[in-house]
UniProtKB/TrEMBL annotation:
Coiled coil: none annotated. InterPro entries: Galactose-bd-like_sf, NADH-UbQ_OxRdtase-assoc_prot30, NDUFAF1. This is Uncharacterized protein LOC106743833 isoform X2. Belongs to the CIA30 family. It comes from Dinoponera quadriceps. Residues 57-216 form the NADH:ubiquinone oxidoreductase intermediate-associated protein domain. One of its GO terms (molecular function) is unfolded protein binding. Pfam families: CIA30. One of its GO terms (biological process) is NADH dehydrogenase complex assembly.
Amino acid sequence: MLLSTRVRRRNRHRRCTRCCRAPFRDCVGAIENEKENSRDHGSLEGPLFTSDKMMLFDFTSAQNVDDWREMSDTVRTVGKSKAVLTLQTSQLFQRAVFFTLLNPQANGAGFAGVRTPTNLDLSRFKDIEITCRGQGQNSNYKISLRHKGQDSNADLSYEQFFTVLMSNDEFSTVTLPLKDFKPYYRGHEMPDGEPLDTTNITMFEFQIYGGVYMPIKQRGVSALEIETVAAVFT
């Protein structure tokens, strides 16, 4: 998707928000080629830019979601939950569906999620926007980010919670300010933890949770239908 002349002029002195950090004008000509790359896996091989946002995941045109892997509570002995991310394709539309079976412990301990590796510098962005809708038994989800290549259970995750519109015919946009991602460790917020390094985000995760340490308790079968995930400029 080529940018207009007006947007080209406005972006003359901006630098690319991808890892290359090249002058923005040098990257504009590559955007059309990146569009084809980004369709392959619904991943971040080639984010698409408009004048106000960068597309991170466009599930309406992705060919597959092979880069996403499950990360649920079955990594622990007592875990019994399950998550799957798949593409739903019809003659009229395509989107991703995040299916979950949440079987928490009596205290609400339990989670089901899917994650993908990323290579993102979002320091010039303000929000993450998700176009989605929910169905099933639960409506409370969270996005979990990691930075600097950290992927161990001993590392902090950076999380933000949201409630999705429950509907079988209407999508809504969920807005998550990047400044509101807080450090967590195994369900506990860590107020003194290192802040999220938005220049080096290396993992993106969708997750549904049982609600341990929280007033909200969830269990059962749910589906989060997702069309797009974008980062919005400051």
